[in-house]
């Protein structure tokens, strides 16, 4: 029988105190209104002294909180739950984008503007339709790509001005907008048409489009990219993306952005 770091490969050493603490967390989580120590001891089958010791430790670490004689989940445990929920939601939207990408035969992206930065939340990963390689940080080049332009167009004037003060307009390719005035004129067009089209401004050989989506107060966008020789498909694919967003993608995007 092989042994790794002193443990049997088929019978790894289990830490009993960790197991007991996890059982207590599960028991507390089953009582939204909280439960007293004696009840938790009965439900977990733990000795009362052990239960008290673990409850004190978990409370000290922020995983539990005691109020009016009962124990409820604390901020640390809630943060773990939120992180897990966030991963599940991101997995859901990644799958939804993958479906859209296959139907559109395009790379598909979902991005939000959060805390002053462009954040690409999810992107398809199809070798048949690979996404644009991030050769210059998407956060610093929002002026040069469709999803960034779409997000900037949704900001109020003060937020947009502050963003451009941190990340000035600069040419990324020979096709990029060259001045802030050029960009602001472009953003006016994006706001009127509710779509941003970009042709080789961020990456040579690639054309992109992005549409704004409603996710509460957050600025968000869905985007697509195609090889430049498929420019003739860009508008029709964008229209199809908009219909998909209205049908299913916006709901998933909202759950991710909040």
Automatic annotation (TrEMBL):
- Decide whether keyword Ribonucleoprotein is in the record: no
Residues covered by the HTH iclR-type domain: 15-75
What keywords tag this UniProt record?
A: Activator, DNA-binding, Glycerol metabolism, Transcription, Transcription regulation
Q: Which SMART domains match?
A: HTH_ICLR (SM00346)
The domain of life for this entry's organism is Bacteria
Q: Which InterPro entries match?
A: GAF-like_dom_sf (IPR029016), HTH_MetabolicPath_Reg (IPR050707), Tscrpt_reg_IclR_C (IPR014757), Tscrpt_reg_IclR_N (IPR005471), WH-like_DNA-bd_sf (IPR036388), WH_DNA-bd_sf (IPR036390)
- Domain IclR-ED, chain residue ranges per copy: 71-258
Which GO molecular function terms does the record list? DNA binding; DNA-binding transcription factor activity
Tell me the GO BP annotations in alphabetical order: glycerol metabolic process; negative regulation of DNA-templated transcription
The free-text function statement in the UniProt record for this protein reads:
May be an activator protein for the gylABX operon.
This protein is called what?
Glycerol operon regulatory protein
